[in-house]
Amino acid sequence: MSWAWFHRFGSPPYFYRVAGILVPWFAWPAAILIFVGLTWGLVIAPPDRLQSDAYRIIFVHVPNSWLSLMSYSAMAIAAAVGLIWRIKVGHAVAAAIAPAGATFTAVSLLTGMLWGQPMWGTYWAWDPRIVFELIMLFFFLGYIALRNAIDDVSRADRSSAVLAIVGAVNVPIVHYSVIWWNSLHQAPSVLRVNGPSMPLAMLAPLLVSFLGFTCYFFAVMLVRARAEVLRRERGGDWIREAVAGST
Amino acid sequence: MLELSDLHLWRGDRHLLRGLNLTLAPGQVLQLLWPNGTGKTSLLRTIAGFMHPEAGQVRWKGQDITAGRDAFHLDLAYLGHEPALKADLSAAENLRFATGMRNGASIPQIHDALLQVGLSGLRSDQPVRSLSAGQQRRVALARVFLWDANLWLLDEPAANLDASGQQILCDLLDRHLGGGGMALIAAHQALAVDSSLCRLWRSPAEQP
Amino acid sequence: MLELSDLHLWRGDRHLLRGLNLTLAPGQVLQLLWPNGTGKTSLLRTIAGFMHPEAGQVRWKGQDITAGRDAFHLDLAYLGHEPALKADLSAAENLRFATGMRNGASIPQIHDALLQVGLSGLRSDQPVRSLSAGQQRRVALARVFLWDANLWLLDEPAANLDASGQQILCDLLDRHLGGGGMALIAAHQALAVDSSLCRLWRSPAEQP
Amino acid sequence: MTLRRSATQAAGAVMRRDLLLAFRRPGDWLQPLAFFLIVTLLFPLALDPELGRLRQLAPAALWVALMLASMLALDFLFREDAQDGTLEQFALSGQPFAALLLAKTATHWILTGLPLAMVAPLAAVSLGAPASSIPMVLVTLLLGSVSLSLIGAIGAGLTLGVRRGGALLSLLVLPLAIPTLVFGARATQLAIMGESAEGPLYLLAALVVLGLTLAPLAAAAAVRISLE
Amino acid sequence: MTLRRSATQAAGAVMRRDLLLAFRRPGDWLQPLAFFLIVTLLFPLALDPELGRLRQLAPAALWVALMLASMLALDFLFREDAQDGTLEQFALSGQPFAALLLAKTATHWILTGLPLAMVAPLAAVSLGAPASSIPMVLVTLLLGSVSLSLIGAIGAGLTLGVRRGGALLSLLVLPLAIPTLVFGARATQLAIMGESAEGPLYLLAALVVLGLTLAPLAAAAAVRISLE
Ligand code: HEM
Ligand SMILES: Nc1ncnc2c1ncn2[C@@H]1O[C@H](COP(=O)(O)OP(=O)(O)OP(=O)(O)O)[C@@H](O)[C@H]1O
Ligand SMILES: Nc1ncnc2c1ncn2[C@@H]1O[C@H](COP(=O)(O)OP(=O)(O)OP(=O)(O)O)[C@@H](O)[C@H]1O
Ligand SMILES: [Mg+2]
Ligand SMILES: [Mg+2]
């Protein structure tokens, strides 16, 4: 296969333009899907036999949890691309993902804690998955902190990239923690080899809101990444045209 | 043979080097007498491979340095603003370890080196910390020529050196060039090296 | 009026200064051009009160400095080998805090000072870390004269400075001396200050 | 512009400078926080979690964590200023040296001790302490962090002075800090148990006063020596 | 004399140099040791000592202390060499950079991790662990300290670019170190309880291997970047 597309997408002007075009295609679906998914999940979907309405947090918790893992992986990959092939766009994307990912992780933790109260009778349990999710939050924060601590952009890019890549070991740990340790936390009930163990009436809205949050993720990521690209392309003359064009 | 072709370097938001070209042949020395803040240190660090130019390339013996980095570094001796000495070790110990990493130098060689830079008077157990600024510079110079590398990159080597120190420096340089070495020197007063080999370069604007 | 009488100073096991006498009257500058490692820095630091001489004393306005230390320090501006700048603050911020501890200097005064040392071009938020060696020296010089202290102790102030920088330094000195200030300078090339006021001192052996 | 600044003005300038620096590098004061939180988080991980046991362990965990966090930060209290020559300029400023160093120490406390004391109750609760105990825990930790910063200032000064005595920081500071730790932990424990912690609290306060009077002078002396 | 030194010779030179330096400044490696001992002694003080409970706490106390002690030392791992320009010379030595940094890390472990692991059993006993458990405790701590040093090397490298990087160091390192801590403490606990600690021990060993393969490369990358 040819790597042309790879390097083309890695060229800032091209990325800037394409990203600009893509943003609305994610923003609108995000708004609609999240709205549909949440109203469906929180209002229409039938209450659970065991946990009546408490379970409805799932429609927020699970999408955010999944996205927290996905966004970290995405960040690590983008950073690696930037570091290995010296492609600035990669760093820009990684930098753009970090805050969003941190938010997803925080939301996952918070909703999890809220859910823990009715389910486990405590907000906070020293459960592997919970702890490693918390560690992931620390990785996101550490990444952001390291970026801010280094004033020179390109150095900040590559230093933080190393951190992002190193932190990637944490992702599988979070995912498999429920299997490796006997933990309080749910074992996978959706992403299972032999199909989800969840009634469709719950699964459907879950997937819809998951799609919604994912679109939201991409929209935010692209917008921020464009800004980051601009910051890196000091004085590149394509910028003047691009900005002039966009206004 | 060192070649810089169309080098562009940014620091922060400053476009320091705009399409810089230069070649350095065996036996030649080029003295950068650019004004403050115009990019001497940045240029030397770029050649050494610490910084990465936005455009253009640095070639050593015809090969891009990013390709054969280790080989290039073995031919290179870099002396920065920092003396890069361990304050708690004696001058001789510092030199022993500095050479121990590249080409082992024997104790006599090291003492000879210290003699040449005019530091034979030191107590052997005197830590570098207790040396004066100029004495520390001299130790760093001794290290540079103990490495007998082919290409010297010296950033203001004469700083803190008294008259005799500068004379020593010039002698070292002449010997280095005589042996087919090359040197790129950032300075503010031109050093009195044999002028036939030596080019002065007063500002990044004009070409050398 | 600074007076050193029969000063004896040891560093470790070296007897650096042996009965040194010297007086500096208003409007005078004395340049120490001693060789490396002969005690320039040590002497300046002793006068500043960091080190204590084994024998002899340092008098300022007739009074031993150990007696009226704070008063003496208010008349004193010391510039050492270290620029003593905060790498994470901008040049202007550094100057504001440096003066804020002694005599408040207004923002315009500070910008004027930066202008005089030829740093008006800097981005106002550029941290000192990102300045070149010579630019940092210039900031340190700006601090010295913003303090408008009576006695300047400068340790190799011309280090890292290009030609224009050295010219600026000389102008500052001339102005300082013209205003009845005094200066004691360690250097390796004599600075071209108005020679009537200026004495050169080539080795600790001879008297100035 | 030669009118001499008063000592308080000078100290103020020093504090403003350090605050600005911290603002430029949020990492510096966020780190002890993160460190503290992570450490308190480590204990439960290191044990198999069981809230009853955790609660007994809480005071020890909190205080050791607090102490280590502030120690870690203290190592940087003077070192950087010493290396770049700023301390020399302080010594030459014609201002009372002890006052300037006290200003530095105070800023350091504001940036590390204070936030630490603020988040500590949170950590305490996560370690199973009852919410009702929070105010007392807060007070004890506030007092404790103050005296830790002061004690640390002495240590930092001494480690500057003695080139080869890096061990001094812990060998001198930790023993000095032990009384604070003991009384502090005791007070916290009583607070968590819901009993009156007056006794140890008074002792803590006494330690703070002692520190305020002695530490700046000791530190100033130590640092001056290191400048020689 | 231009014959090129092999990578191992170069690494050897680096180790000898660091050992000599440590010999000149015993403080640097005595400090973490003293720190560790005092911390482990603090626990009995911070709690009211009652051996039964102490024994339960021993693993947690040991491991947290071990971790913090090595953290404290880690900040010195590269910083000094970075400031005085030695690391630049390493990078220009034409030798594999990762190997040189690994050599530095190894020396650092010999000077801090090893002694720590050696005195730890002592501390364990003082915390009420049975003498019979000492060998196992020793093994777990040895393994743990190795991987802590390796992880720390990454953090130290990353924070070089930042002045006062100690600020970020622990924030970056502690999350990485938590698995080591969890398994290590579990193993120590089993050892103290006199049960078989094989499971966690294997995991610890796995972490060490992982660290040995990844850490030097990551650290080298990080340091190179910081030299820019
Ligand atoms: C602070 C507490 C919690 C945290 C940090 C947390 C974290 C996570 C994470 C990271 C995931 C994604 C795992 C993966 O995709 O591999 C997840 C999934 C999930 N969580 Fe939680 N969780 C918490 C509490 C809870 C509670 C209390 C419940 C309800 C009993 C719950 C139910 C679920 C479910 C059903 C999934 C989807 C499982 C799957 O199909 O993969 N979580 N959680
Ligand atoms: N992050 C940054 N942002 C903006 N400008 C920067 C940054 N880093 C460096 N610079 C500028 O780039 C230049 C670097 O100069 P360099 O140190 O190479 O100068 P030099 O020729 O060595 O000067 P000197 O003779 O004083 O040593 C300086 O003008 C400095 O202000
Ligand atoms: N602890 C010590 N033991 C022995 N000698 C020492 C000690 N400390 C300093 N010295 C010697 O004292 C002298 C100090 O010199 P100083 O730094 O004052 O020289 P200087 O005139 O400033 O030199 P330069 O021109 O290089 O700056 C040096 O020769 C140094 O070797
Ligand atoms: Mg320079
Ligand atoms: Mg000197």
* Beta fraction of chain B: 15-25%
* Overall mean confidence score, pLDDT of chain A: 82
Major pleated sheet of chain A: none
In whole angstroms, the N-to-C terminal distance of chain A is: 38 Å
Rg of chain A (CA only): 20 Å
Count of separate DSSP helical elements of chain A: 9
Oligomer: heteropentamer
List the uncertain runs of chain A: none
Task: Tell me what portion of residues of chain A adopts beta-strand conformation.
Answer: under 5%
User: What is the spatial order of strands in the main beta sheet of chain B?
Assistant: 6-7-8-3-9
Give Rg of chain B in angstroms.
Answer: 17 Å
Shape of chain A: globular
Q: Terminal Cα separation of chain B, in Å?
A: 16 Å
Run of helices and strands of chain A: HHHHHHHHH
Instruction: Kindly name the structural category of chain A.
Output: mainly alpha
Question: How do you describe this structure in short?
Answer:
The complex is a heteropentamer, with one copy of chain A (247 residues), two copies of chain B (208 residues) and two copies of chain D (228 residues). Chain A is mainly α.
Structure, described:
The complex is a heteropentamer, with 1 copy of chain A (247 residues), 2 copies of chain B (208 residues) and 2 copies of chain D (228 residues). Chain A has 9 helices and no strands. The model of chain A has no long low-confidence stretch (mean pLDDT 82). Chain A has helices at 4-10, 12-44, 58-85, 88-120, 128-149, 153-167, 170-180, 200-232, 237-246. Chain A has 247 residues and is mainly α. Chain B has a 5-stranded parallel sheet with strand order 6-7-8-3-9, with helices on both faces. Chain B has a 4-stranded antiparallel sheet with strand order 2-1-4-5, with helices on one face. In chain B, α6 (163-178) links the parallel β7 and β8 (182-186). The mean pLDDT of chain D is 80. With 228 residues, chain D is mainly α. The longest helix of chain D is centred in the middle third of the chain and has 30 residues, at 97-126. Chain D has 9 helices and no strands. The chains are: A mainly alpha (247), B alpha/beta (208), D mainly alpha (228). At the D-E interface, α2, α3 and α8 of D face α2, α3 and α8 of E. Residues 40-41, 155, 186 of chain C line the site of one magnesium ion.
